[in-house]
Amino acid sequence: MWSLADLLRGDFKQSQYGRVILPFTLLRRLECVLEGSKDAVLGQAEKLKSMNLPEEAQEKLLLRAAGLSFYNTSRMDMSKLGETGIKDNLESYIQGFSKDAREIFEHFKFAEFIAQLAEANLLYKVVQRVREADLSPQNISNHEMGLVFEELIRRFAEGSNETAGEHFTPRDIVRLTTSLVFMEDDDALTKPGIIRTIYDPTAGTGGFLSSGMEYVHELNPQAVMRGFGQELNPESYAICKADMLIKGQEVDNIKLGNTLSQDQLYADKFDYMLSNPPFGVDWKKIEGDIKDEHTLKGHDGRFGPGLPRVSDGSLLFLMHLISKLRDTHEGGGRIGIILNGSPLFTGGAGSGESEIRRYVLEADLLEAIIALPTDMFYNTGIATYVWVLSNKKSAERKGQVQLINGANLYSKMRKSLGSKRNQMSDDDIRTITRCFGAFEVVDARELDKAEEPASTRGRKSAIGKKAEIKTFASKILKSHEFGYRRLTIERPLRESFQFSDERLETLRFAPKPLGTVMQWIFETYGGNWTDAPDCPRYGDLAEHETEIRAHIKASFAELKEKHIKDLLKRDTWTGQKATLLSAKDLQAVIGTDQHNDMNTFDDTLKAAQKQSDVKLETAAKKQITTAVSWKNPQAAPVIKKVHKATTPNPTYGLFDVNGQSVEYKPDGDLRDNENVPLDPSRTVNETNEDYFACEVKPHVPEAWIDATKKDAIDEEVGIVGYEIPFNRHFYIYQPPRALEEIDAELDAVSNEIMQLLQEVHS
């Protein structure tokens, strides 16, 4: 079938070969399968013409006559299409298929390619070549035909590197993920007649579904596997549906549409789920639907635990899959999903991502995470991970998570396919699956891997870079070890105040956003303004309005029209001058000395107001306070409240000052957070307070824990967060080289540079 490419070369792009070859392969297979029941279907179709039945009833009778999940009522086949009028005959032949089969050809946009083939005078040649292939069930079983179709899909995907990653997962990754998910189901792998369901919410061309069926078929040919899936891209959907039809599967189980916003299998639960959702794709287009389900349904829906940021919907697919797990009393289910590194650690405590990880780990659903090598996918070279989840963990796995570092289990491909430069061999896959199956800890051991060939580009340095040691390792951690409590640590606000001329002068101008512009206007146009209370010229800008507007437009474009109007009002200027003059009157009483205890400010201000007979509005008082005060680490802490009849507790911000429990104002600039590891063996307060006493108090004696910041779920002090710092767990310390060695290398490099410079000059 792939030899059709020889006919298409020149008239079609290489990336289009599959769009012609795949539907023709499907057409020939369906024709060969229907050959035995053709006469019965035609006879039944003739009877139905006079019965005037609805289309649905007719289809059921025709399907019964065919004895299959599809039929064709046309009297033609590929040997009877002829050369003259072949385009119309072929289109008529395809229209004779049952609805599901016909829909596949429509999504392939087969009519468009038939027209292109006819225009290039290739249609008859292609049809003749295709009809020579014997794709009958007697010659090729459904299973074998599925493998043929899979190989054609692979060649098509790899031939169009620019789009391969959108609908095709590399076979080595599919094989690894499938092995991890199925390896512990002894019944499915051994018992005859056992029935299992497999589901992929991002089905693409059906690679994961096919691989799951193939994996079980190899080990247990008598097992029955039923595939379910949903796909957004119409062409990938057509390929997937065709693959299922060829394998004899129920194609009604393959749906078209967005899985997250329109789950068309909402009532179904599955035994196995495999998925490779798109990395880092935003979900803004369906944001309304997702948020509505989260808000209205909560944990009764799919997205109860939380929502990730709109820029990456990977974790939405994870939650969708979890909602599809078969109930534990019915045998439970398992999930294998491929994600990038972002879902491991993105988002701090309380964020949507952290809450999703929290739900997964606290519900004890996560079995393992396996780090894959980079450069494994057609359209990205980033680090990727396989997450294995289950609601039927074995006793030894309960409450624990296995991390497997398989990032170095790869070999270089002879020829790159897009971004895919590395591949995993059967031995590499076996290494991971055996480690996972044995549930064992593996200390970092060196792999017997060939050194990567050095680049042949450019001139090489005489000082070669040392080859990195490639290792394989596995760790087993308790689920709670990924969790922490984020404590908010406060320190007291310390302020001084001083009624100096420089600080009071800032009161001439309004606060942000007008302050800077007012200062420019004053310096430019206020030369003849005086501070006399009755100065008629102060703030009169009528004759300069045009110039001021032009300058604002050029230099302060962020200012809105209402701000500009305020600037041009004389009342704005005279109001600020009145505040300035009031502050100067207060200055005459208070003086210009610096005061390092802000707690005395209110009493000092009241006394000065009374003595100078100055009345201050709330806004003016606030502006004066801001102008004359500043943060000073040497000043006394500012008291927020004195708690009467309350026992001091400095850990939580109640300090003993002269026999009273005093609460200080916190300084937002000094606010910090501490992540305290979870410890289920002790109470939350014990864990928090011990950590605070050991890690915070010795360094910052005046700090305290903000007890008002509590977790929304358990209502304990501190917000719970979860992250999986995969690389941190597998970090291997490399001691720095000896100084003598570095010096010698620098000398060698310097000599090499000098030689190069001499070559240039000569």
Question: Would you kindly provide a brief summary of this structure?
Answer:
The protein is an alpha+beta fold.
> Can you count the beta strands?
21
Mean pLDDT: 89
Give the overall form. elongated
Spans of at least 5 consecutive residues with low confidence:
none
Sheet with the most strands, sense and barrel status? 10 strands, mixed
Q: Into which percent range does the helicity of residues fall?
A: 40-55%
Approximately how much beta-strand content do the residues carry?
Answer: 5-15%
* Structure classification: alpha+beta
Q: Kindly, what is the distance between the CA atoms of the first and last residues, rounded to a whole number of angstroms?
A: 62 Å
Give your account of this protein's structure:
There is one protein chain. With 762 residues, the protein is of the alpha+beta class. 42% of the residues lie in helices and 14% in strands. The chain has 29 helices and 21 strands. The strands form five sheets. A ten-stranded mixed sheet has the order 3-2-1-4-5-7-6-8-12-11, sandwiched between helices. A hairpin with a 2-residue loop joins strand 9 (411-417) and strand 10. Helix 3 runs antiparallel to helix 4, helix 9 packs across helix 10 (161-167) and helix 24 (570-590) crosses helix 25 (601-612). The protein is elongated, with a radius of gyration of 37 Å.
